Amino acid sequence: MTIITIVAAIVIDEHGRVLLVRKRGTTAFMQPGGKIDPGEAAEVCLARELREELGVEVAPGPVFVGRFSAPAANEPDAIVDALLYHAAIVGVPSPAAEIDAITWLSPDSADPPPLAPLTRDIALPMAASLR
Known about the structure:
There is one protein chain. This protein has a 4-stranded mixed β-sheet. Strands 2-8 form a two-stranded antiparallel sheet. The longest helix has 14 residues, at 117-130. 21% of the residues lie in helices and 36% in strands. It is α+β, with helices and mostly antiparallel strands. It has helices at 42-54, 117-130; strands spanning 2-10, 18-23, 33-35, 57-58, 63-71, 78-86, 89-90, 99-105. The chain has a single domain, classed as Nucleoside Triphosphate Pyrophosphohydrolase.
C-alpha cells in the first residue's frame, strides 16, 4: 500500500460553508492542498498549493488541527497521510492548474456531491465544530 503525505486546508466562509475542490478527470470533491515536496515545510506547501490551484493566499496564522489517514480518493491502493490546517484565505478562489471545479458546501448538507473519504469522514465533521 502506498502512503501519500499531503497538506490540506479546511477553509470556512462567513456562512459556515467549507471550500472544496475537484481535480480534473475525477468525481470526488476534497479539501484544497496537495503533496508535500521533499524538504518542504507543511505551511509552505499549503500556501504554494492554494496559490497554484486557486489563486489565493493563505492568511497569516493557519492553525494545525491534526494528522489523519484515509483511503486516497483518486489513487487505488493508496492512503493519504494528511496534515490538516484550519486556514483563512485572501482573495476569491477560482479553479486553476489541475483543479476543474470548486464548491462551498455546508458540513450538514443533506445532498453533498461525491466526496473524498478524508473530506466525508474527517474534515467536514471537524469543520462543523470549527464554525
